[in-house]
Amino acid sequence: MPRSRAALHAVLGGWGVGRDVLESAELVLSELVTNALRVPVPSDRQVGVRIVRLPADGLLRLEVSDAGPGTPEVRAPGEEETGGRGLLLVEAMAHRWGVEERAGGIGKTVWAELKAPDIVAEPVGREVAAAIVRPGQRVRVRGEWRGVRTVRVEPYATGGLAVVLGLDEGPALRVPAAEPLVVRDGGPL
After folding, report:
1. How far apart are CA 184 and CA 182, in angstroms?
2. Host H or E run for residue 139
3. DSSP H or E segment with residue 167
């Protein structure tokens, strides 16, 4: 589950969603993944997570697929029960949710859509080689935009060149000169 949360934060960081949508999405995704992990399936089957934006509708769609049979149902657990409330939470927080059979015919995909009126249609940025990044630009690092303060090139001991970007937050970023990075111009540093 930590990997699915990290992926969610990385993806949503570039889509302009607000903190409240991010927190709701994190809880909904956590519940969907938890349910998928509890489905009895062969040990070689994995849970799939897909995060989709539907900017024309102002929606964020979270999809979790598993190889298990059946359809999950909302339960009304008793006060003494410690589990069984996951889909109740999803139903309460999502704009809508549902279940679809997987295209391959094995298992299902449970999806939930959350209202995200501030979601952007396309990330603002372009992909360039690290060697052409310049101070004053912003670069995408682990799902977040960082301002580039300094750029220097240094050789690797094994040959080739590395670009070292001094950023406005966090440690410097050291990457091969040909490494593709997503950048955008300007913005406050």
Report:
1. 7
2. strand 138-141
3. strand 161-167
pLDDT digits (tens, 9 = 90+) for 62-119: 999 988 888 888 877 777 776 667 888 899 999 999 999 887 778 899 999 999 988 8
Coil, helix or strand at residue 4: helix
The alpha carbon torsion through 167, 170, 172, 178 (nearest 10 deg) reads -70
Question: For the whole model, what pTM was predicted?
Answer: 0.63
Residue 118: CB atoms within 10 Å: 12
Structure tokens at 128: 């360039």
Q: Cα(178)–Cα(180) distance, rounded to whole angstroms?
A: 6
**What domains can be seen in the chain, in order of their start residue?**
2-115 (3.30.565.10), 126-184 (2.30.30.30)
* The pair of three-digit structure tokens given for residue 125, joined into one six-digit string: 């940025």
